[in-house]
Amino acid sequence: MKVWVNGSICDAASACVSVLDHGLLYGDGVFEGLRVREGRVFALDRHMKRLGIGLKALSLNANVTHLREVVLSTARAYAERNAYLRLIVTRGPGPLGVDPTTCENPTILCIAASLTIHPTEKLDVGLDLVTASMRRPAADVLDPRVKSLNYLNNAMAKLEACQRGADEALLLNSQGHVAEASVTNVFVVRDGWLLTPPASDGALEGITREAVIRLARDLDVVAREKTLTRFDLLGADEVFLTGTGAGLVPVRSLDKRPIGRQVPGPLFERFAAAYRELTATDGVPLA
Ligand code: PMP
Question: Is 34 in the pocket of ligand 1 (CB under 6 A)?
């Protein structure tokens, strides 16, 4: 593991941040998760754009061009052809009170490491999902489109999934519509169509989600954003999840009820192959 901390790169054991950092004290900050595949950082500029929007939403001043360089430098220092990168920008250290205006300098961190979210065996058989009892916060509470350091809602949903013996949690919004899973977007295949909830239903505008929607054109599949309910998942031909960390992952059940006839489904297999090919050949080269 290699870590960038405020201007220098070190090993994880010697990476330090202040206990007064408002990222730690209040979850005040934003982050991105990126992948290096075959020596290329996939969708680097898309990630930087989303981060830039998040920084603006939080009125956090940090130079996105510099942050892009931080990502590349950390990835180069890690020197692995395949890696996960976590870029974090916090409000920085300040007095104990919540007031963000008391923090003078944001903290910039970047972690390069390996990450496996679901073991390969799970990719072969599909994940078991449970519907989380906790709802996704509404956009006027804490906009899920901002990838903020406030992941308590996601962490509690994942904890509930683990406690109930499942692999992942499905999060609904306060209207009961599907928002997303704890760290992934949700796709449903029905009669050859590919459907995913709009961001306004509580989903992060996932970079992998966007790549899958683009790939649909090449694969001659109609992809649409559509408000979905649990009913749509239970009656789907296929369901799968997407995320930078997790990749494309098939789902085999929701609340102990089986989904689809074949897992992984035929459309999933086509998208997974196309995504593998895309991420191995597209992206900003490290060398
Ligand atoms: N939703 C949430 C809540 C996430 O944390 C993630 C992971 N970043 C995703 C969806 C998937 O987004 P992406 O494809 O950009 O990784």
Answer: no
